[in-house]
Amino acid sequence: MSLFIHDSVLGHVPNPGFRTSGFGNSFHTIDADGLRFTGEASASSEGAILAVGDSFTYGDEVLDEEAWPAQLQRLTGRRVLNGGVTGYGFDQVVLRAEQLMPLHKPSVVIVSFIAGDVWRTEWRRLWWRDKAWFAIEGDELVLKGVPVPDRARVLPPGIRRRIDGILVDLPFAVQQLVGYFSRAHRHGRGLEITRRLIERVARWRTTHAVEIVVMAQWQPDVWTNSAEADRQRRMTHAVLDCAAAHGLACLDTFQRIAAEPNREKLYARGHMSARGNLMVASLLAAALPGLLAGRRK
After folding, report:
1. With bands split at pLDDT 50, 70 and 90, how would you rate the model's confidence at 165?
2. First-to-last CA distance in the chain?
3. Domain covering 17-126+185-296, topology
C-alpha cells in the first residue's frame, strides 16, 4: 500500500482511504474520494470550493488540517475540497480538475501553481512516474501518452523505493540518462502549452458553471537566489497575464510573502509551513469575495 496509486490519465493520484505519516512532521489522510482530508464539512449554503494544484496545494510537510485548503475551509465556513497532488505539472492539474468537477460540482475552482508546474508540462516522466502530456497539433492541444503505463507493476515496491533512494541524489544529467526524468518537449515549450491550457480553463465557466481563481505560489529559493527569482517571476507573471487576458480572477501571493519580516517561518523545507499555509488561506479568504464579484459583473 502507498500514498499514491496509478491512474491511466493522470499518472498518479492519492490512494482513497489511505492514512500515513509523511515527510517532516506531516500526516496524510486521504478520504474515500481520493482527496486530502480538510475536516468535517460545514453547514454553509454556499457551493463548495475545489482547490487543485501541486504539492503546495496538497500540503507536503504539514498535517491535514494545516494545508491551506483545510485552513481556508475554517476561515470561510465553506466546504473546500483539496484536489492537490504532489508532483503535478500544470497539465495534470487541469486534467485533475476536469475529473473532479463533474463529481463534486463546485461553484468555485482555485487553480494554484508554482513556476515549476509550467516546466513540468514539458516532461513525460518525472521522478520515475510516467504522466500524460500535451502537444500542440495544428492549432489544438492534443493529449498524448495515454493510457499512462504503470511502472509500479514492473518492479516490487520495496525494490523500486530503494532504486528511487539512489536515483534522487544523482546529478540531473545522469537522472535523465537512466530515465528517471524523460522529456516530451524541448526546454521552453511549457509556457506555450500552459497558455493553451489557460484557454481551456477559461472555458470551464461555461462548461461547468464555475467561477475560477488562478493563484500563484512561490518556492523558497525565490527568496535566496536572485537568478532563480527572476526566472520564476517571468514565468509566473506570463501565466497570470494570460489568465487575466482570458477574464479569469488572479491572485499573486508574492507581495504578501515579501512583506513578511520573518519569511523563513512561512516555509518548512521545500514547501509552506503551517504558518505559511495560514497566510495563503487568509489572503484567499479576504480576496475571494472581491475577486468573484468582479467576475460576475
Report:
1. confident
2. 48
3. Rossmann fold (3.40.50)
